[in-house]
Amino acid sequence: MDMFTTEYAERPGQEGRVGFRPPRLRWELRAAGPADVEPIAELRAVVMRPDLVRLGRYDEHRVRQRLRDTFSELHTSVVLAEGAFAGSVTMSPAPSGGQWIEHFYLAPEHQGRGLGTAVLRALLDRADAAGETVRLDVIQGSAARRLYERHGFTVESEDPIDVFMVRTPRDGNGDGTARP
């Protein structure tokens, strides 16, 4: 289990106030198990519903079944915030080499407060240390795309539903530049 502590904005919008100090949030990633499939499938349905409805693609059964069909205990981590279920992320070997991130969902009460940034940063640090390219896809128009762009992902291709993004490994000097 990987344990982390990060700054976390309890009240979004308060960050710019003079003297504001965000509280510390203890969060961790733990390996997923068979009992995690249904909670993650349910979270997926909740989180993806607005974007899928907007695209005319929401199906009450299919949104959950897709997670069940592609769930990988070996590569999935459960995100715990202060010991409670807060989300999930899967990072697995990509068919073209490198890593593939999918099923990255955070419960609505944890979105927009820095937890997603912290989790993504931890995953990308691992990939950078291994010199691996990371790929993912995000639904057209999803707010999550901005998170990925802030972390160096660029559009590789897109279709009417998905935007496929890629991020090359960064060097260890902390400036965010790609490896030569």
Describe it for me?
This protein has 180 residues and is α+β, with helices and mostly antiparallel strands. It is 28% helix and 31% strand. The protein has four helices and eight strands; from the N terminus they run E-E-H-H-E-E-E-H-E-H-E-E. It has an eight-stranded mixed sheet, with helices on both faces. Helix 3 links the parallel strand 5 (99-106) and strand 6 (134-139). The chain is globular and about 45 Å long.
Counting H and I runs of at least 4 residues, what is the number of helices?
Answer: 4
Low-pLDDT ranges: 173-177
What amount of the residues lies in strands? 25-35%
Structural class designation: alpha+beta
Shape: globular
**Overall mean pLDDT:** 87
Strand order of the largest sheet: 1-2-3-4-5-6-8-7
Succession of helices and strands: EEHHEEEHEHEE
* Largest sheet geometry: 8 strands, mixed
Helicity range of the residues? 25-40%
Rounded Rg: 16 Å
* Tally of DSSP β-strands: 8
CA(first)-CA(last) distance: 32 Å
Properties at a glance:
180 residues, alpha+beta, eight-stranded mixed beta sheet
Q: Topology, pairings included?
A:
Elements: E1 2-7, E2 24-31, H1 37-54, H2 62-70, E3 76-81, E4 84-93, E5 99-106, H3 115-130, E6 134-139, H4 144-150, E7 154-158, E8 162-167
Parallel strand pairs: 5-6
Antiparallel strand pairs: 1-2, 2-3, 3-4, 4-5, 6-8, 7-8
Helix pairs in contact: 1-2
